[in-house]
């Protein structure tokens, strides 16, 4: 006859502790793995916009980023931006430059395409449409969520690349061509992959789609 041995109180506590540890480890892994878990995805169909024709919707890995464009401030830059959006040129393009909680940059159509990244040249690519003249507006405030066209160190070199700032950047005022501002989705942008060691990202996140609302 086999005699049953009762677990001591300390053994029971250890067993409970191990179970709780396993649950905590699993939950932590799930949360870390799913970086989008607590990010609310905004559906633009549920929003009434004052100027719907000027609304663009960028879909990133964690959801939608809704941007209002400002053609009255930068007509040529916005026209170029809309042309590229409507031609689906930005789809599967990398967020190749990311400074955590500060700035994201994308739009290298030549060297930033998913499946055809060129890490040696990314950030220097062009659209094939040529550059456009800078439309600097000294009165435009580069506050959090502002969207501007990237350029080289010289003016009049804007093309397809754009940036979005995640904090106020007063030093950008009078320096870069503004094209719009994020209305919804800043938390989505903050989840885009960054690297503390470098602004340029190895195995970056990509734009899923970029569409005009109308």
UniProtKB/TrEMBL annotation:
Any one GO MF annotation of this record: peptidyl-prolyl cis-trans isomerase activity
Record-linked Gene3D superfamilies: Cyclophilin-like
InterPro entries with a match to the protein in the record: Cyclophilin-like_dom_sf, Cyclophilin-type_PPIase_dom, Cyclophilin_A-like
Domain PPIase cyclophilin-type positions: 62-203
Membrane spanning residue stretches: 12-32
Keywords from the UniProt entry: Isomerase, Membrane, Rotamase, Transmembrane, Transmembrane helix
E.C. numbers: 5.2.1.8
Reaction catalysed by this enzyme: [protein]-peptidylproline (omega=180) = [protein]-peptidylproline (omega=0)
Function according to Swiss-Prot or TrEMBL: PPIases accelerate the folding of proteins. It catalyzes the cis-trans isomerization of proline imidic peptide bonds in oligopeptides.
Family from the record: Belongs to the cyclophilin-type PPIase family.
Designated name of the protein: Peptidyl-prolyl cis-trans isomerase
Organism: Pelagibacter ubique (strain HTCC1062)
């Amino acid at each position: 006859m086999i005699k049953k041995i009762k677990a001591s109180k300390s053994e029971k506590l250890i067993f409970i502790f191990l179970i709780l540890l396993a649950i905590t480890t699993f939950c932590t892994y799930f949360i870390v793995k799913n970086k989008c878990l607590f990010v609310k995805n905004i559906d633009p169909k549920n929003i009434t916009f004052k100027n719907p024709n000027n609304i663009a919707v960028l879909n990133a890995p964690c959801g939608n980023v809704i941007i209002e464009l400002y053609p009255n401030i930068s007509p040529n830059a916005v026209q170029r931006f809309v042309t590229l959006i409507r031609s689906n040129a930005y789809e599967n393009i990398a967020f190749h430059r990311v400074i955590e909680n500060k700035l994201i940059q994308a739009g290298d159509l030549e060297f930033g395409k998913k499946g055809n990244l060129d890490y040696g040249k990314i950030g220097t690519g062009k659209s094939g449409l040529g550059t456009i003249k800078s439309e600097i507006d000294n009165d435009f405030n580069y506050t959090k969520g502002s969207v501007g066209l990237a350029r080289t160190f010289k003016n009049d070199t804007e093309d397809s690349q754009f940036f979005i700032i995640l904090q106020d950047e007063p030093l950008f005022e009078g320096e870069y061509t503004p094209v719009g501002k994020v209305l919804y989705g800043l938390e989505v942008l903050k989840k885009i992959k960054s690297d503390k060691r470098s602004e340029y990202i190895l195995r970056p996140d990509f734009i899923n789609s970029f569409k005009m609302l109308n």
